Amino acid sequence: MQLPPAVQQELARRRLSTTGRARAQGGAGERPSRAKGAGLEFADHRPYTPGDDIRALDAQVTARLGVPVVREYVVHQQLPVLVVLDASASMATGTPAKFALAQQLAAALAYAGLSGGDSVQAVTFGAGVHSSGRMQGVNRSTELLGFLGRVRPEGGITLHDAVRHAAAAAPRGALVVLVGDFLADSDPQAVAHAHSRAQEVLAVQVLAPDELDPAPLGRGLTRLEEPEGHASVSVMLDDASLSAYRRALEDWNAALRAQLARHGGRLIQVRSDQAVQHLILREFLARGVIR
User: Where is this region: Disordered (predicted)?
Assistant: First the structure.
């Protein structure tokens, strides 16, 4: 799959942002890490210990203090990023269907990770759980976007099962990007599982306009189908039922947002009729998802 040229050009000079729970680790990247050592960006002084490289000695500070002191520098490493895309059958529902935008957003955020010097792995789930290799460097973007572009929405594997499989393989301190609708009962458990691994979660919720407000569906007896469980139910759409639905959706998302916030995570809600260019170039920049 291809990203719009304007989105790709903008992301080429951006990187994914974190709230602080995720941390750079391992490899040679572009993010300042907690590690100190050889580098170009000065961090601090510390007393010399046997085995230190004598080239790190600061002659002026050593002469002033009368004890050997070495310079420490910031080590730039990679942030491990895990992008998890919901490709279950429910993502094919809605008007317009949610999956096309979810797929583009997952690809854009994965591309931002690669262009920012991070180590990125993508996971899709629906008919099965499928993982790409862990990739580094923007030259791997064609391969990674191709992996995300080949998946189609089908099946009913849950986000919880996918995250339990994928997050367990990702390192502690990784940034886990979840893209889906988050309407299944087990979805909050998936968020909790990532948090239990000391991973930071960015949840991008894609909902269709008629899921946010079913009023345009009309009034009267309506048959609703559950695409993953192949069940259906008839409901009477009237002012009372529509109000109850809106309250239930608001309460559900408020609980999900609160659970994420308790652990330093974030929930970004988008509509499936929004353009990926608008979301990436305006809303995601304004909300600090990328910087």
Answer: 1-42
